[in-house]
Give the backbone structure.
Amino acid sequence: MKFGDISELAVRNLREAILRNSLTTLGVAVGVASLVAMLSLGVGLQQFASKKLSSTGLFNAVFVASRSEMGDFDRSRRNAAQNAAQPAAPLDEAARQEIARLQNVTEVYPEIRFMTEIRYANNPYPTMVAGVPESARADGAFDGMQGTFFSGPAADEAILQIEFAKELSNDPSSLIGKNLVLRYAERQALANSSARNSSSKGSASSASGGFSVVPHEQQLKIVGIVTTEPGGGFGGFGRSRVFIPLQVAQTLSATEVNDLRSVLNGSSANRDYASLTVRVKSPKQVEAVETTIKSMGFATFSLLDTTRNLRLFFTVFDLLLGIFGSLALAVATLGIVNTLVMAILERRREIGVFKALGADDRDVKQLFFAEAGVMGLIGGVFGVFLGWLIGRALTFGTNVYLARQSLPSVDISAVPVWLAFGAIAFAVIVSLIAGLYPAARAARLNPVEALRYE
Amino acid sequence: MTGETNGTAIRVESVSRHYQMGSAVIPAINGVTLSILTGEFVALLGSSGSGKSTLLNLLAGLDRPTSGAIVVQNRNLAEMDTYELARYRSQIVGMVFQAFNLLPRMTLEENVELPLRLAEVDRAERSSRVREALGHVRLDKRLAHRPSELSGGEQQRAALARALVNRPSILLADEPTGNLDSATGEEIMLLLKQFNEALRMTIVMVTHERPLAERFAHRIVTLADGKLISERGANGGAKQ
Ligand SMILES: Nc1ncnc2c1ncn2[C@@H]1O[C@H](COP(=O)(O)OP(=O)(O)OP(=O)(O)O)[C@@H](O)[C@H]1O
Ligand SMILES: [Mg+2]
């Protein structure tokens, strides 16, 4: 029999026992829906998570530190032999410029963090200050802040972390526009201690190595307050509570944590960076850039492994969701088997007539097969729609909850095209497999017996 | 038949069909030898259980003989595989049953179209052939009716149309008048006779009704206990 005739007869036969076949098909639909809902949740959460994470600008970044300083930082211990062959290079301005010239590198900036004392309303507040590069304006690290980002890369402005802002005032938002004073210790090389000396107020304190530390003050205008920790605690802003433009931080030339360490190491003549953040054009190039920098003799760290692990996590997560979703579909296919076996019993005579009129075993088999396939197809299409609805409902419910907590809404479920078509194809395939046994049994039916008596 | 030279349509050579029932063997057909000419109208008589249906099913290729050969148009059915047998039923044989066996869920048109679907006849051609076949049995006004909406005689005529629609050269009928009153039964017999003469169709018909067989068939073959016990001409034809 031709394909068109088989499918036509199959649809006909299904329509004849409409209630039973509808229920069976509904079973398939519910199975597919549970599969789709589960997977759409997995996909949605994954999209949500990777959107959140990529907005931190961490996945196109390589963090560089001097190898001599950061034993723990260097996760490539397995390359110990190779590392030993290269001398630990100093992470100074020359190195920064060399890295900046590498292909696909868009920006290289140092991590500048130092302890200061903030004075506001004549009260001292000791805290950690971090320099923020201009690129943070665009990459979303400061999304959702109150107030505005720095007006320019060299503006004498500050953004406060909300907890710190609360320490300063009971009404944090009133702080925006106010001024505060930053007190810090300037690091001055002993040889040419002239640059900012004019503005220094205190006297030079003692210095053991090649520089002296001079206390300073700098007035800054508060322009914004962040509620989240920019960069999720990574990227050099970690645990800092006051943020100032990177250029401002650099000109302040404050004594940093690693200065003391480099003193101890004896490499004090040149000023080294504690670490550099290298921005790469896209996450795809991170690995190549990281390898190059490593070969230059630096310790590097990127979140590439983390994304890889994240992807692995979601693959396993999706797999588990898929297995649970498929369970319902498996139960539904038993319904198909049952329905078709029932149909064989009912249609014994009909099968006999078909054979007597010239149907061969394959025709009969294909007819039952097609009936299973049509139930799978209809159930699949309907199930995808149902699953999508369930996902929408879950998202809606979640957002109602989030709105009540005055949190921004999220999209936790997504039915991409591949999932929709994949689920339908899966439903059809599974249904066809369910049809194997009934179809074979129908084809085997002896026509003489089937026709014998009413 | 009418003096013309006729080839042999069906040759049955010492055919047996035994059913195994536990340890007992039931010889439903036991060493039957029989030749049927092209265009011949043969009536198969015998008491209940004598093996008439069994023989007919063997001729239709729905069943296989335990031993012996059935040669139809020079091909031995016993040597064909199931697909060849299905093709044989589709292309060469038309079947009519006592119980009509129209499919209740299909309209008359669809019932009659079924053999054409199975024979993979082009869609474009089907409709006209269905109308033609139903026209032969004067049911071309009832295309959209379901079998349950027809009388017994009409149903059997529809079944006849279904058997004829793919223009078989051999028509096998198992008690086609069995469930019909005598007037209606006679009507069916007249139709069979008409096809036999007009289309030179070979017909083998099982019946219980000797008078009908004698009026319409060329030859009457009688079975008893699976054996052929008599073979003689009837009034219906000019069988020598
Ligand atoms: N599948 C089977 N298994 C066992 N015995 C069978 C089977 N089919 C037929 N028989 C036996 O074979 C014999 C012939 O049966 P068949 O149906 O050919 O008789 P029949 O001449 O057509 O009778 P009726 O006039 O009642 O239709 C019977 O004794 C029957 O019981
Ligand atoms: Mg019988």
Remarks:
- Confidence is low (pLDDT under 50) at residues 1-5 of chain B.
